[in-house]
Structures
1.
Amino acid sequence: MLKYEDVLNDKEIISLIESIKSDEYKLNHSKRHIFKVVENAENIAKQLNCDDKFINNVKIAALLHDVGMTVQRKNHAEYSYEIAKEYLDKKDINAEEKQEILNAIRKHSTAKDSNDLMQQIIVASDKIDIDKSRMMPKAYFSDINKNLVYINDVRLEITDSSVNYIFNIEDGHFKDICLFFEDWPKPVKEIKRFAKFLNKTPHFIFNDKEEVFDEEIYKI
Ligand SMILES: [Fe+2]
Ligand SMILES: [Fe+2]
């Protein structure tokens, strides 16, 4: 079995992750983001009581999901897939598990129409990494991305009946945060999809208060 720790400590992977560049006016895609997505994926998989093998593999998928950004931003998921495939083909890993990881990497931009748990977890883990620490220095000057400065922290809590997308925000700035989501509705939509996939109800909670997002804008 290919262990997450072995991939993490592999020089080839370290140098790939170190070389991911982020657009300075946008959001961080580099090391900070990668390890946040690994942490989120582990967290979500544990909340869903996934077994150790699955948790190991979902962490490998998270670690490699954005390596295609070293090629270019456009279609980077496809490049991530190609780089990860070339890497995993050299490793001792069961064919079925390899395919599951590669599929989650290749389709990490949306989980629309997906029936695959690993893919769903990677998409959700990626999309909940939106808080002020994700902002690149010049994102503070971007009309839309500057609104992330009001998000202190985000997490996903899964209960028997619901998926709770929980935000800790600066008081009085929910409307500003909505401007960000109106421009990029994907995080809200993907969490709705994830909840639907798990047969649970999504709740969006900002400082202990549940907010309802417009059905039209955030239609899935
Ligand atoms: Fe990505
Ligand atoms: Fe990402």
Note: Residues 65-66, 76-77, 108 surround fe (ii) ion (ligand 1) (CB under 6 Å).
2.
Amino acid sequence: MHEKKRTSSYRSNKTMVQIIVALAMVVCLYQGRAYAVLDPPTGAIERSCGETNIGGKKILLAYATKHGATSSIAAKIADVLCQEGFHVDLKLAYKVKDISAYDAVIVGSPIYIGGWLRGARRFLHKNQDILADMNVAVFITCTYLKDENDVPERRAHAKELYIDPIFDELPDIKPMSYGIFSGEFLYRELYPVEFILMKLAKFPEGDFRNEEKIIAWALEISALLQ
Ligand SMILES: Cc1cc2nc3c(=O)[nH]c(=O)nc-3n(C[C@H](O)[C@H](O)[C@H](O)COP(=O)(O)O)c2cc1C
């Protein structure tokens, strides 16, 4: 009898502990996302180029960033497109008011805890009707494809994980190309909650950006828009 009671109380304690651990994980993940959303971005770049490209198509490059890696990649794409004869406005996505004056839109976001930053996601949702009738290209920056991990199977998986869910919700937007770039991840730049989360996940740090791949994608977009 006593033995039975002890076993059932052990079971209920175990369940309780499991529930508490699960709740703690949910709170941590939520906070991680909240941090990624609430903290102001560092290293944002906003500028225009290609003003002297008379008759060149106008491209809006709207992006989000948290720690600046996506800004540097967006700026490189803009530079290449301006050299190719386009006029490019590089802007933080959450600040963009009107996209009607553009011939094409490129949207970029880093991946944080499996998802896009809110600025870029909101931009897509807010402008989905106009984007449905425009030339659209998208890119993400992440660490999933860093260095030797950049193989076709992982690329396909990264698209499934980080791009498809966004466009499953926005079926009318049909991007003509997807860029998936390795970004930069440095512990010294992280906010405290990010730091703890990433240390727990043993995320390897480094600058994994690859200029050749960024330029190649920008040239692909240029060819598609000519
Ligand atoms: C808190 C945090 C969560 C991250 N989550 C992911 C992830 O789920 N998948 C991934 O591939 N990279 C992840 N990364 C790496 C970032 O996507 C990468 O460092 C990106 O280049 C950062 O861009 P930013 O500097 O423009 O903010 C994460 C980085 C941080 C700091």
Note: The pocket of flavin mononucleotide is lined by residues 32, 65-70, 110-114, 141-144, 183-185, 190, 194, 197-198 (CB under 6 Å).
